[in-house]
Structure formats: structure tokens, C-alpha cells
Write a structure and sequence with these properties.
- It holds the Pfam family Terminase_4.
- InterPro entries: Phage_term_ssu_P27.
- This is Phage terminase small subunit P27 family.
- By secondary structure, the chain is mainly α.
- The chain has a domain at about 10-15 and about 35-130.
- The chain contains five helices and two strands, in the order αααββαα.
- It has helices at about 10-15, 45-55, 65-90, 105-120, 130; strands spanning about 90-95, 100-105.
- Strands 1-2 form a two-stranded antiparallel sheet.
- The mean pLDDT is about 80.
């Protein structure tokens, strides 16, 4: 599909740009809010989890998004650790055997975690942005949800 990815309905409401004629009436509406991160996560990943929940628009992230948020939070923690390593060692380090300058191994880790974070945000229609492109079986829209209600007579 060409063009920009559509924004989720909830984001459009928050921004004040929601137009009734452009609402996806079949957009999934998952239940249950996300709360605390899983116990197994490192403190850095838990911090990223809480940051995402704190900064996300209210009611946007749901339990359905848990696995994607787990991946994102763990990748964010590893990314931060790699960036700290790059700060300490620089972009180039001496090769162990020859001493010739080579790319820091932290740079490869940071790049890979950035890719994982990006993919986690768009995978399988679980993220709020990609959710607006998913259609579910039609329910009978209520009068307030039906963009044609004003002209139907």
C-alpha cells in the first residue's frame, strides 16, 4: 500500500484530527490495559516498559500488545547498554590480535537492537499504528459511530 501508514483512531482523537468519514469502523478494539512489566525483565527493560506506558496516550496500549512491548523494552535496554559501551570505547577499537582499528562490537549490537525495536513496533498488527489498518468483521455501527447517520433519512 502506497502512502503513509494510517494513525490509530485513538491517536487521531487525542490529536483532534479525527474525521468521521475516515474512521475504520472495523478497527480492532482489544480489551485490558497493560500495567506492570514481567518479573523476569532486567531493571533497564522494566524502566523502558514503564516509560512506554507513561508516555503512550491513555488507553492506547492493551494486553494484546504485551509481547511486542516486551520485545521493544528488552531491545531498548540492550540498545542503551550498547550505546554506553560505544560512549566508553568509541566507534573504533583495536583488533585483539593485530591492533588495527576495527568497528566496536557495541555498534553492531546497537544497530541490531534498533532494528528489533523498529520491527516490534509494526509486527503483526499488534501495535496501535498498525492496528488501524486491520479490519475485523463488521458490527452494526451505533448512530454516533456511523458517518452516514446525518444524511440517512
Amino acid at each position: 500500500m502506497a502512502g503513509r501508514k494510517p494513525l490509530p483512531t485513538q491517536v487521531k482523537k487525542i490529536k483532534g484530527t479525527l474525521q468521521n468519514c475516515r474512521v475504520n469502523l472495523r478497527e480492532p478494539k482489544p480489551e485490558g490495559d497493560l500495567v506492570e512489566p514481567p518479573d523476569y525483565m532486567t531493571e533497564g527493560a522494566k524502566s523502558a516498559w514503564r516509560y512506554a506506558l507513561e508516555c503512550a496516550p491513555p488507553q492506547l496500549l492493551k494486553r494484546l500488545d504485551m509481547s511486542v512491548l516486551e520485545i521493544w523494552a528488552c531491545a531498548a535496554d540492550l540498545y542503551r547498554q550498547a550505546q554506553t559501551g560505544i560512549t566508553q570505547t568509541g566507534l573504533l577499537v583495536p583488533a585483539p590480535n593485530t591492533g588495527v582499528p576495527m568497528q566496536s562490537p557495541y555498534l553492531a549490537i546497537a544497530n541490531k537492537q534498533a532494528q528489533i525495536m523498529t520491527k516490534a513496533a509494526t509486527e503483526m498488527g499488534f501495535t496501535p499504528a498498525s492496528r488501524s489498518r486491520v479490519s475485523m468483521p463488521a458490527e452494526t455501527p451505533s448512530a454516533e459511530d456511523d458517518p452516514w447517520a446525518d444524511i440517512a433519512g
